[in-house]
Specification:
The protein is mainly alpha-helical and about 80 residues long. It has one domain. It is about 30% helix and about 5% strand. It contains 2 helices and 2 strands; from the N terminus they run ααββ. The protein has a two-stranded antiparallel ribbon with strand order 1-2. Strand 1 and strand 2 form a beta hairpin. It is globular, with a radius of gyration of 14 Å.
């Protein structure tokens, strides 16, 4: 997501360009849908069904999951 003026380092503090925190984008996606509700209902309380619903809502507005990373950089997933 691109912002004008640029908010790099304020809203999107991570190593990837055009990536924004999920909590911010969840609110954006819900607002674009006209749904003003506490969708996730707090940290750790979201259900797998709500995650799938949010992925569907977000995709309708061009919002997709970004790469997984931590303080050391991108996280490689081993599908073993």
């Amino acid at each position: 997501m691109r912002f004008a003026p640029g908010f790099r380092g304020i809203l999107n503090r991570h190593p990837f360009p055009d990536v924004v925190h999920g909590c911010l984008l969840e609110g954006v996606a819900l607002a674009l849908e006209g749904r003003f509700e506490p969708f996730s209902k707090g940290r750790g309380a979201i259900t797998p069904e709500r995650v799938e619903e949010m992925e569907t809502i977000a995709a309708r507005h061009g919002i997709y999951l970004g790469p997984l990373y931590n303080a050391d950089g991108p996280v490689e997933l081993n599908n073993a």
